[in-house]
């Protein structure tokens, strides 16, 4: 794990986007294309603002979408497709885009994504961490073993409450019950993982993720510590409850 501490979310987003672009360019130099997985959420705003300004030949980059609600129209403010289209896909010209289209029949979209994902390794995963330490919609207790690329999940109340708190939905009853998520094993198969985790509201999740060297399904993001190339970007808010053993290591 490489831990990067930044003063604020804007600096965090800029540095993480530079790191992502440098790695994508390395992949383009190595094999002529790159396959990237993108997450969404308020925590990724500054990253995307900076990513679209990076010197990358996006026409050689294939994008996979991390997760999406089932049955939520793309016109809804909480739609992750809407988010990605507005903040990234409409701003650059990509080689290919694989959305998790939650308005289609789940079995059809799962089949298509499985085939597309199976064509080769993901070079980069941009993986946010939720307030309950979820990665994508793998909420605690997360299944670390399922080996499909994506799966359907039932959203927990905890996860729904987080979405309401962030202002994406008016109330708990408005949050869909089901979603399609990239699985933990598929996320872990990315050659490189970058996590942008700004804001004080994530301090507890970050603290619990790094508390010990152990991994536990109760803290889904803890599995990221076992990835050979995981870069974690924090700001002063999210880093405010770092465990002493980690603080000691970076002092
Ligand atoms: O639910 C999710 O959580 C993470 C973090 O989201 P945020 O709204 O707290 O920024 C997000 O990156 C991921 O795509 C999504 O599944």
UniProtKB/TrEMBL annotation:
> Keyword Hydrolase, does the record have it?
yes
Q: Which Gene3D superfamilies match?
A: 3.40.50.1360
Q: What is this protein called?
A: 6-phosphogluconolactonase
Give the EC number(s) under which this enzyme is classified: 3.1.1.31
Extract the GO molecular function terms from the UniProt entry.
6-phosphogluconolactonase activity
Q: For this UniProt record, give its keywords in alphabetical order, as a comma-separated list.
A: Carbohydrate metabolism, Hydrolase
Query: Where does the record place the Glucosamine/galactosamine-6-phosphate isomerase domain?
Result: 8-225
Q: Which PANTHER family match?
A: GLUCOSAMINE-6-PHOSPHATE ISOMERASE, GLUCOSAMINE-6-PHOSPHATE ISOMERASE NAGB
In the UniProt record, does the keyword Hydrolase occur?
Answer: yes
- Source taxon at top rank: Bacteria
């Amino acid at each position: 794990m490489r831990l990067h501490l930044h003063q604020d979310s804007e600096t965090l987003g800029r540095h993480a986007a530079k790191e992502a672009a440098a790695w994508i360019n390395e992949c383009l130099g190595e094999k002529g294309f790159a396959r990237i997985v993108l997450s969404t959420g308020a925590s990724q705003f500054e990253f995307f603002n900076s990513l679209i300004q990076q010197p990358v030949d996006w026409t050689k980059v294939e994008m996979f979408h991390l997760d999406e609600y089932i049955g939520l129209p793309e016109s809804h403010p909480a739609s992750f497709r809407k988010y990605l289209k507005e903040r990234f896909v409409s701003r650059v010209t990509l080689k290919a885009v694989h959305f998790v289209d939650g308005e289609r029949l789940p079995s059809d979209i799962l089949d298509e994504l499985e085939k597309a994902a199976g064509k080769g390794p993901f070079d980069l995963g941009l993986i946010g961490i939720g307030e309950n330490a979820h990665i994508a919609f793998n909420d605690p207790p997360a299944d670390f073993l399922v080996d499909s690329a994506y799966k359907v999940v039932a959203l927990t109340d905890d996860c729904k409450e987080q979405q309401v708190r962030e202002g994406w939905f008016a109330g708990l009853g408005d949050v869909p019950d089901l979603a399609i998520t990239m699985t933990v094993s598929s996320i872990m198969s990315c050659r490189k993982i970058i996590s942008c985790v700004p804001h004080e509201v994530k301090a507890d999740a970050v603290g619990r993720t790094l508390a010990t060297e152990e991994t536990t399904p109760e803290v889904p993001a803890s599995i990221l510590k076992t990835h050979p190339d995981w870069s974690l970007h924090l700001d002063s808010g999210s880093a405010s409850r770092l465990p002493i053993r980690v603080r000691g290591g970076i002092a």
